[in-house]
Every structure is written in C-alpha cells, then in structure tokens.
Amino acid sequence: MADIYTISRILIGIIILSLAAASDWRTRRVSNVAWLVMGGLGMLLLAIQIYEMDYPYVTFLILPVIAILFFDIFWDREPMVSKGHLSPIPFILHIIALASAIYIILDVGLTREVIQLLSVPAMILVAELFFYVGLLHGGADAKALMALAVLFPFYPIVEGLPMIGYPAGLSGDVELLFPFSFLILMNAAIIQVIAVPLGLIVKNIARGDHGFPEMLLGYRMRTDDVEKKFVWPMEVVRDGEVVLMLFPKRDGNIKSELASLKEMGMDEIWVTPKVPFIIPMLLGFIFSIIVGNLILLIL
Questions:
Q1: How far apart are CA 291 and CA 162, in angstroms?
Q2: Which of 7, 77, 97, 291 could form a disulfide linkage to 65, CB 3.0–4.6 angstroms apart?
Q3: How far is 127 from 137, CA to CA, in rounded Å?
Q4: Cα 233 to Cα 212: distance, rounded to the nearest angstrom
C-alpha cells in the first residue's frame, strides 16, 4: 500500500494533468491555474510531511525557496535585469531564496533528505533553462515540469511498483541524481519520439502517402485548411521553388508562406502537427509510476 502522501500526490497529478491534457488537445493552451493549483497543493503536502517526518526545523526554509522560484514564473513583470536596470524586488527575493538554500546546507549538511528537498528548486531552474534553450517548446510544458517537481519532491512509494527496478545498491543514488519529475520528462519525451512517428506512418500508409522521410514527421493537408489546424507547413517557397523543410521554423509568417505556395499552384502540402506535449507528460507520469524508467527498459 502507498502512504497518504503518495496517494494524494498521484491523484492530484492524474486529475490536473488529465484536465490540462484535454485543454492542450483542444486549444494547444493550458491555463496557469492548473499549475498554480498543482504547485500550491504540492507545497502544502511538503510542509505537512516535513513536520510529520520530524525533519530539522531549518528545512522549512525550503518552502520560501520553492515559493519564490515557482510563483515568480507566473508574475507578469519586467526581467530582473533589463537595459542595465536592476529590478529590486525580484532581485531581493532571489537573494533570499539563495541565502535560505545555503543556510539549510550549512546547518544540516548535504544529507539525502536535504538533497531531495533542494532537487525541487533545482528542477524549477532546469525547466526554465530547457524552455529558454528550446528543449521545451511551450510555456505550459515548462510550467508542468516545474509543478510536478513541487508536487513530487520524493519518489512515490507504491508496493510492487515500479515494475522496472534499479540494480541492487543503485536505487538511492539514481533517485537523487534523477528526481521523479525529471524521470517523467524523460519518459514523456521517449513516448513522444516513439508514438508520434508510428502514428504518422500508419496514417500516411492508410492514405497512400509514402514520402520519406516526411511521412515520419507529418502528413499532407489541403493548403486552404492549414491555418485552421494546429500544424506548421513543411513545404515553403524559396527562390521561386517549393522546398521541403523537415523541421520548419516555428516563428515564421505562415500566412505569407501559404500565399506563396498557393501562387505556385500547391493545393496540398506536407505539414507537421503541433504535438500537445502535456499528453505525453500525462502518459509519462502514469508510466513512471507503474513501469518505471523507460530508458532502463530500452537498454
């Protein structure tokens, strides 16, 4: 059996990710409310758990560290540093967060429990980094990873799960090096890399479209319908010729590109779908709890 904290976290994760996935599928947008609720409930559970597990009282300082880094993402403000100007309030808040984290380490040391607690703000920063370098394309994807990090500072403990166990003696080390939220992200990415091309192959074969390698990345669509769907054109006009772009730019002027294609007489073009990544994250979340580390399974 799982303890009440694990059960609560799993239920919260499944409910909110399911609602977010449905919204992402319909509109390719997810309200910030979903992640604020997930993060807020995660912090509440963590506060209660720190108290009941009789952690040193200084570890309660992890809560303002998490709150500052997590809720700052939803604060509509100017950058901390812009045009040589330093915004004092966010700067002071981040100094408080850093000082609190350092104080915890100096007072308690880098124990297993402290590393697990510090993994939460660390994953928030990792998610932010992944967003800025383009590894996470949507703001909702990054916020989902941050909220999951807050919700799951510890690996969920369910009797008999996950099905894939770690090698003897390595379980604790792996869990410290790869927080549960990071495992969810890895599994979600693998699921997307496998499932999306397979689905596209089946769809294209059924329709008789056998272009390679574009059939692995997209499908053909009427040019007039492109703007109405959640897709990017894979075919563009360059120097008077229609060329195929397997990985189209996501910040291009689609309306202008489509106009050029129509002038070239292109009634149908290859497009690549805007994959709602919250759906793979939901599947990765469930998979991580039941099955475990998909990379170990593949290896």
A1: 5
A2: 97
A3: 11
A4: 16
Question: Of the residues 132, 159, 186, which one is the last residue of a structural domain?
Answer: 159
Q: How many CA atoms within 13 Å lie on the side-chain side of 46?
A: 30
Q: Per the structure, how many domains does the chain have? A: 2
Close Cβ partners of 36 (under 8 Å, ≥ 6 residues apart): 71, 74, 147
Q: What is the pTM of this model?
A: 0.92
Q: Report if residue 73 sits inside a domain.
A: yes
Rounded to the nearest angstrom, the gap between the alpha carbon of residue 265 and the centroid of all alpha carbons in its chain is: 40
* Whether residue 180 sits in one domain with residue 45: no
Segment 30-65, tens digit of pLDDT: 999 999 999 999 999 999 999 998 899 999 999 999
Q: Which domain holds residue 39?
A: 4-159
Residues 225-246: pLDDT tens digits? 999 999 999 999 998 899 999 8
